[in-house]
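Lab notes, practical 5.
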Amino acid sequence: MLYPGDCLKLLAAIPDESLSLVITSPPYNIGKEYEKKLKLETYIEQQAAVIRECVRCLSPQGSICWQVGNYVDGGGIIPLDTVLYPIFTEAGLKMRNRIIWHFEHGLHCSRRFSGRYETVIWFTKTDKYTFSLDPVRVPQKYPGKKYFKTYSHLNGLEFLMVHEPALWTEIQDVIAAVDAEVCKTSLRSICEASCLLCR
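Output from the prediction step:
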């Protein structure tokens, strides 16, 4: 169904807790041909009214996925998902994921990196929400591999020095000689020293 009108009027006609899924990509308030650019505070108030109505219509097992980009003002950006997040949590919803959608097209910036992403913030009303992972699961790159086998207790610190063979040898000696907690401290010192050498 396509509703060419005010979404708040449509939402007002929907019964409480009757929707299983709400997916929307509202205007980002950047002055496109289909929207009027508003002060950020006014825009947030408008979004809050729509969000509250969506929450009212959402079933206890339901989800809301809100896709937004960045609001641009005077060359500075404001990530809209960060300013909308409190509205959802104040309505009692719990965020389940912040999904980054990366794309290759868009305007080219000259004084900052070009924005090549938008975010989808996914919230649920309760812990008894519907989620089917298997139909969208991405196969493992290395099936059966659970973790890096050597020195996994270091949480990746050893990888910092892979491209410096002499320092890597010293790191291996440290790992063999001390426990994990002392080793982490030693590795940080070695890494700091290597950074000074590279300057």
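Observations recorded by the TA: The radius of gyration is 24 Å. The first strand starts at residue 19 and ends at 24.
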